[in-house]
Design a protein that fits this description.
Strand order of the largest sheet: 1-3-2
Number of helices: 9
Number of strands: 3
Low-confidence stretches: none
Order of helices and strands: EHHEEHHHHHHH
Bound molecules: retinal
C-alpha cells in the first residue's frame, strides 16, 4: 500500500463513506417506489433495490479494511501491515454486475423467451468478466495483469455487442419515450462500464504512489454509485413511463374487513 498524505487518505475514506449513504438511500427509494408502478415492472425495481443493498454492506467492509490497512505516523498514512482486501470489491461486483443487466432487461417485461435468452447471455458474460479480472487485480506482475485484462475484456465486448444489437431489437417496439429512456440507460452503462477496464490499466501505464491509489479508489467508488444508483433511477423512470403507457392508475384500494363484514 503506498504512503498517503492526510488529504488523500481523508478523500478516499470520505468518498467510501458517502458511497454507503448513497447506496442505502438508493435501496430505500427503490424498495418504496415499487408500489408506484404496475405489477409486471416491480421485479425490476426490487433488483434495483437489492443491488445497492448488497453494495452498502460491501462498502462498510471496504471502508473497514482500507482504514485498518493504514496507520498514521508523523502526519502521513503508511501501510499498517494488515492487507487491504480487494476481494470485497470483486465479491460485490460478482453479485451486482449480473444483476444490473438483469434489471435493465426485466424492466422491459419482454416475452419470456426473449427476456430469458438475453438475461442468460448478459448475466453469465458479466459474471465471467468479473471472475477473469480478479487474478489480474491481485497480481503485481504487469504480464499477468495484461493477460487477465485481455481475458476479461472478451466478455465485456460481447456484452456491449449484445446490448447494441439483440437488445436494441428487443426494445424496438416500445413507445418513443421508453425507447429514449432505455437508450439513455444503455449509454450510462456503456460510459460507466468503460471506466473500470481503463482504471485497471493505471499501474501498467506507469501511474503509482498515493495519487494513483487515490484516483483508483475514488474513481471505482464514484463509478459504482453512478452505475448502481444512477442506473436504478433510469429503471424507475422506465417503469413509470411503461406503467403510464399501459394505463396503470395505481392499485385498487382493498376493502377493509369492517366494511365487508
Ligand atoms: C475489470 C478487469 C479488467 C478488465 C475489465 C474489467 C471490468 C470491470 C467492470 C466492472 C463493472 C462494475 C460495475 C459496478 C457497479 O457497481 C474487472 C476491472 C473489462 C466493467 C458496473
Amino acid at each position: 500500500m503506498p504512503t498517503l498524505t492526510s488529504n488523500e487518505y481523508s478523500l478516499i475514506t470520505n468518498v467510501m463513506s458517502l458511497c454507503c449513504a448513497a447506496m442505502l438511500a438508493g435501496a430505500l427509494f427503490f424498495y418504496y417506489s415499487r408500489s408506484q408502478v404496475a405489477h409486471q415492472y416491480r421485479p425490476a425495481l426490487l433488483i434495483s433495490a437489492l443491488v445497492p443493498t448488497i453494495a452498502c454492506y460491501h462498502y462498510f467492509r471496504i471502508y473497514d479494511s482500507f482504514s485498518h490497512a493504514y496507520t498514521l505516523a508523523n502526519g502521513v498514512y503508511t501501510a499498517s501491515g494488515l492487507p487491504f482486501n480487494d476481494a470485497y470489491r470483486y465479491a460485490d461486483w460478482l453479485l451486482t454486475v449480473p444483476l444490473l443487466v438483469i434489471e435493465l432487461v426485466a424492466v422491459l417485461a419482454l416475452p419470456s423467451n426473449v427476456s430469458r435468452r438475453l438475461i442468460i447471455k448478459l448475466s453469465s458474460a458479466a459474471a465471467l468478466m468479473i471472475a477473469l479480472g480478479y487474478p489480474g487485480e491481485v497480481s503485481h506482475e504487469a504480464t499477468t495483469r495484461w493477460i487477465f485484462w485481455g481475458l476479461s475484456m472478451t466478455p465485456w465486448v460481447f456484452i456491449m455487442i449484445t446490448l447494441f444489437t439483440e437488445f436494441t431489437e428487443a426494445y424496438s417496439r416500445q413507445t418513443s419515450e421508453v425507447k429514449s429512456l432505455v437508450g439513455a440507460a444503455r449509454g450510462l452503462l456503456l460510459l460507466t462500464w468503460s471506466f473500470y477496464p481503463i482504471a485497471f490499466l493505471s499501474p501498467m501505464l506507469g501511474f503509482s504512489g498515493g495519487v494513483a491509489e487515490c484516483g483508483l479508489q475514488v474513481g471505482y467508488t464514484i463509478a459504482d454509485i453512478v452505475a448502481k444508483v444512477g442506473l436504478g433511477i433510469f429503471i424507475y423512470m422506465i417503469a413509470i413511463a411503461k406503467s403510464q403507457a399501459d394505463g396503470y392508475e395505481g392499485d385498487a384500494p382493498t376493502r377493509s374487513k369492517a366494511v365487508t363484514a
